[in-house]
Amino acid sequence: MAQYGFYFDSDKCTGCKTCQVVCKETYGLPVDTLWRKVLNYQGGSWTLDAATGIYAANGVFGYFVSMACNHCMSPACFGVCPVAAITKDMQTGIVAINEELCIGCGSCATACPYGAPSLWESKGIFTKCNMCSDLVAKDERPLCVSGCLMRALDWGELDSLQAKYGKGNVEVEPLPADSTTPSLVLNPHRSSQKSGTGTGTLVNLPEEL
Questions:
Q1: Alpha carbon 184 to chain centroid distance?
Q2: Global pTM?
Q3: Which residues is 119 bridged to in the sheet?
Q4: Mean pLDDT of residues grouped by 10 in the chain (209 residues)?
Q5: 9 and 148 in contact (C-beta within 8 Å)?
Q6: What are the distances in angstroms from CA 17 to CA 67, 92, 96, 137?
Q7: Phi/psi class of residue 28: alpha, beta or left (left: φ > 0; alpha: ψ in -120 to 50)?
Q8: Of 26, 7, 184, 32, which is closest to residue 95 (Cα–Cα)?
């Protein structure tokens, strides 16, 4: 079995959201449904110097994390689906939701620590990134990867990605501690903070989360 995964370099990401938009537009996702999300994490404060009228930065930082389904080695969504609508392909490691079987109960969304499953309200089902499995079957890259202007995203067999970029570190804010072994190699931003110890906050609009 090959396990395909994503690579993301937070230091290169400018938050342009091209990856998010190309996915949304290609798959015709409704307004409040996202299969890839660009998370904007910021912290610190500005203080006004009354004497000079100049604002001073107090530990100000900010960075982006582009996140889709991580097609985890031990997906939390897999075992909680009451109708067995979620599968993990033995050839690619891709985790997929069978839309014909899904009853829209939301158990997968509740279980996923990364918030990958998203409600498609008009269909009454939950959907998520399928790693552009139709393109992968033709040995082509997922759309988000080919669309990234800064080349902050890459894709391939997880072993190859780790050999090329190192193992990375997925335990950075605003992501949770690793509990599912995500198929992700993440190069943290130079200002990143460890999961669970962050002093910042997500500043995305509600519909982006």
A1: 9
A2: 0.93
A3: 126
A4: 94 97 97 95 89 87 97 97 97 97 98 97 97 96 97 98 98 98 98 96 88
A5: no
A6: 11, 26, 23, 25
A7: left
A8: 184
Which of the listed CATH numbers 3.40.190.10, 3.40.50.1000, 3.30.70.20, 3.40.50.410 matches domain 4-69+130-201?
Answer: 3.30.70.20
Dig out the tokens for 54 from the structure: 């100049």
Instruction: Yes or no: say if 29 and 123 are a contact pair by the CB < 8 Å rule.
Output: no
Residue with tokens 């100049």: 54
Q: Which two tokens stand for residue 65?
A: 């994390």
Give the integer Cα–Cα distance in Å for 141 and 107: 30
Strand 54-68, strand 184-187: pairing: unpaired
State the DSSP H helix or E strand holding residue 96, giving kind and residue range, or none if neither: strand 95-97
Cα–Cα distance list, 191 to 12, 83, 101, 174 (Å):
12, 42, 43, 12
The residue to which tokens 């107090």 are assigned: 58
Residue-range domain boundaries for the chain: 4-69+130-201
Which amino acid, one-letter code, is at 177? A
Whose CA is closest to 169, among 146, 193, 149? 193
Find, among 23, 7, 37, the residue nearest to 114 by Cα: 37
